[in-house]
Amino acid sequence: MKVAWHGHACVSLELSNGYTIVFDPHDGGSIGLERPSVKADLVLVTHDHFDHNAVEVVKKNRTRVFKEFVGEAVVDNVRIEGFESFHDKAGGKRRGKNTIYLVEVEERRVVHLGDLGDKPSSDVVSKLRGVDLLIIPVGGFYTIEPYEAWDIARSLNPLNILPIHYWVKGLNLPIKPVDEFLKLVEGFNIVKLDSNFFTLENYEKTVLIPRYG
């Protein structure tokens, strides 16, 4: 499984047959970044905010799209489970709801937490423990703060971690850089990559930092 980070919260999973899943596409320009250069067979949108819902940027002719989907579904041999969570600590009253996606495919389990603003319920946490890859926002302000992200990551005990939704050069949102999260990490290797992608099967107990730009 090839995992690529396209800036902000946009992540793609390319399967062995070329089938591609994209989470939370942005349009690039509205947040000061480049447009994602990926096309999706399946798009999963965690919440309908402008910097996460630019489906047209990555869509192909027959792309399947799930927006804020809560429940279970199987699409093209990909098992999807969506869990309700919140974009804030006020039960969604400030920024709305957020969907956590668990994807199971090719004997791998991948979780994308979207713009998580508060700790998930204990029931959700129990279903997400031990995944192969945890994709987690770490920049704060609009989402959980770096220390909260690390607390959640520890409680989920994933095999690998991919931090997202943090400040990079050009981004015009007031969020923290990834180093604020990395200085809290214990028990994981930290690998800063030379490209924006990696092969998931090559890593274990690793925090992966793809290069952006």
Describe the fold and architecture.
The protein is mainly beta and 213 residues long. It has a single domain, classed as 4-Layer Sandwich (Metallo-beta-lactamase, Chain A). The protein is 12% helix and 36% strand. The chain contains four helices and 14 strands. It has helices spanning 55-58, 122-128, 146-156, 179-182, and strands spanning 2-5, 11-14, 20-23, 40-45, 59-67, 71-75, 78-86, 97-105, 108-112, 133-137, 160-164, 189-192, 197-199, 206-209. The strands form two sheets. Strands 6-7-8-9-10-11-14-12 form an eight-stranded mixed sheet, with helices on one face.
SSE topology:
Blueprint: E1 2-5, E2 11-14, E3 20-23, E4 40-45, H1 55-58, E5 59-67, E6 71-75, E7 78-86, E8 97-105, E9 108-112, H2 122-128, E10 133-137, H3 146-156, E11 160-164, H4 179-182, E12 189-192, E13 197-199, E14 206-209
Parallel strand pairs: 3-4, 4-5, 9-10, 10-11, 11-14, 12-14
Antiparallel strand pairs: 1-2, 1-13, 2-3, 6-7, 7-8, 8-9
